Each structure stands twice: as C-alpha cells, then as structure tokens.
Fold this sequence. Notes:
Elements: H1 9-31, H2 34-41
Amino acid sequence: MESITGIEIYPLISLLIFFIFFVALFYWVITAKKEYITKVSNIPLDNQNDFTS
C-alpha cells in the first residue's frame, strides 16, 4: 500500500463521510417532531394493515 501514490487521502475521506453521516443523523433525531416519532413507533403495533388468510 505504501507504493501507491495518493492513497493516504482515502482514510481521511472515509472518516469524513462517517462523521458527516452521523452528525446529520444526530441533527435529524434532535429536530424530529415528537408526533412523527410516536406515529412511526406505533406502526408495528397497528393491526389495521394486517392481511389475514
């Protein structure tokens, strides 16, 4: 790997992508409306959409 020129930038880019993704996710969680979180969290418990045979 040391013989490849310019390879030292790839770990930095990977770390940057990882950091930006989780900062954006954290921001979305903090700013999400409580009504939306409650609605989405109740979806698995909602029996109105179940298909019975």
